[in-house]
Amino acid sequence: MTKIKQSLYRFFxxxxxxxxxxxxxxxxxxxTSQQIGDQEEVVPLYPDVSWENxxxxxxxxxxxxxxxxxxxxxxxxSVNFSEKKNTLKFYAPEYLESYGWIFRSxxxxxxxxxxxxxxxxxxxxGNCLDSQNYxxxxxxxxxxxxxxxxIAPKIGPVGYNKISPANGAVIPLPNxxxxxxxxxxxxxxxxxxxxxYQYCVDQTNNNLCDADNWIDRESLYxxxxxxNPEFNLIAGQTYYWQVRSKNTLIYANGDASAWWSFxxxxxxxxxxxxxxxxxxxxxxxxxxxxxxxxxxAFLDEGDYYQYCIDTTNNxxxxxxxxxxxxSLYxxxxxxxxxxxxxxxxGQTYYWQVRAVIETDPDEYTYVYADSGIWFKxxxxxxxxxxxxxxxxxxxxxxxxxxxASVTYTVKFTQSVTGVDSTDFVLSTLDPVGGVTGAxxxxxxxxxxxxxxxxxxxxxxxxxxxxxxxxxSVQNFQSTPVGGVGTSPxxxxxxxxxxxxxxxxxxxxxxxxxxxxxxxxxxxxxxxSSVINIGSNTATSVTLSLNPAPAGTFTYYxxxxxxxxxxxxxxxxxxxxxxxxxxxxxLSFTPSVAxxxxxxxVRATATNSAxxxxxxxxxxxxxxxxxxSVPDIIALxxxxxxxxxxxxxxxxxxxxxxxxxxxxxxxxxxxxNTGGVSLPISVLIQETDxxxxxxxxxxxxxxxxxxxxxxxxxxVTFLGCITFDPAVNRIFIEFRDASxxxxxxxxxxxxxxx
Length: 753
Fold this sequence. Notes:
It is built from four helices and 50 strands. The protein is elongated and about 130 Å long.
């Protein structure tokens, strides 16, 4: 006789030790379904069966991580095997749940339930000890004893997350949505008396529950019954779902916006495996009851299903460990004495289902789901605790700044949620307290990257953004940054960011003239002014050219009033704060000829960033020639071309001196706005340097060596221009007959609106 047939004759004995006290033996009649629903304290006994009252019984049960010794009333009945299926269906979770009994655990031949009155119902079944019948044992608690027994600790699920269907999964149409959605335990305080779960399923991808249609649950799975589920699914439709605690509003996967989706395949299910979807990665469930689900093969009476799950990818059931089931989902098998199967974090599992069809006595045919193809799924590994990997300056990237606000970029080693301003603190240094009133104004981002905007307050000094670990920032497994901390002072994941030097010293500079045409081996000079707009002294200020052209660069500090040199070559100068100006003479001697090159004249201090490049303000257009050429020094005669009307015409003058050789052709004067579109039109005409009278157009003829000439620039405003001197400028260029720039200058413009 086969192993399955032999197992039918095994004797049944109760696994949990019971102590019978105050026996009150006798037969009782079962309650109707209406009685069960009306009175939760009435023990639910299957109708039309003669039950033996075993009296008051102590039972030790495991619930919520502890062992409880409870008093209760026990009953026992014997049914023949033809009645077995209906009896077991009566005690199935989907049936008892409709009468207030919430499923808590399944050990194969032992089911545990709980109701709102904190009563527990224990149902055990198996072959009777002294007959060929099937025995049912039902026990309901009355009150808890005053002591608890220690039990071996269990590894619980990591975090509060949705389990199945996996996010983005495409699944066949299930037979029922009862126990279809599953999630891990949030360990709600007072559950189920003061808080419970809610789930929502809809068809709109908006991270919201349409019509606020949240469904209350006192279990870790979706509800209803096999015949009347709480929501219907349509083949070919995509659904979105989320789970939360009802009163405390704790959302699964750590975020109210972390909705998951699944799509019901339009294909006919047939006898196929449904969930977990093949190749899916799932969170470790609290129980594997109903973890595996498959389609209906419409078996005849007496036929049944078997499933196998193992860790070997060999398309075979290791040790022939098939588990018998009369349902379309995984569970225990009291006959084979196989109960819940353990799952290990990070492990990949392979599973198959088959229908066992008896063709002749003791002869069976096996029909495998999905034409014999095994499915696999992987239990998500326990990730290492997330950490902060960097907090860096992003806007601006330079450490020295005069900005009213700065932005840091914060990077984590994993995607995390729960990041807000309470996770950061600002530290002042160099000197401590130099910056006052700084504050975090906003925190944004997602995944592993966040941006923190900081108002720099007042004063000058060092300012640093630090991450403070308070266990509120967590990954999707609810593991906090740095791991779980120990109160008080949770500091495992603390991290210090980069430092901004705020208004410590802030330099700006300008040069005149902005272009020179040099001869190889001969120096050309210009003047530069450097202003410290910061609050502290800029120390060891130096000047440099970037990029550095071929040649020798030298500079000297000068008296700003007389331009007399007052220093040695290339000095390091301290410039006090508060808009103090230092003046310099710059000299460059080219060593080879090169085409016109725009060079940034940079001023740098040991406690300040280099000056920002401003075209036409601190850029020097240098050109080196093997022979002498015209070299025009041009200056605008206006220092304030601002706050003019938005519409109308205004004029400014440009004076020029040719310090080079005479031009061999005409010099053409042109204007442009440096690539910025401004609502203006420009007309240039030559003027008499002495009287300002217009004497010609924008083409200068016979420009001699050492000669002074001038032009008038008529600007017609066709709209308003904002005040932005670094961007909104008019550039005046002098070009020779070969279109080389032999002189240039510029002025900033803006209107009064």
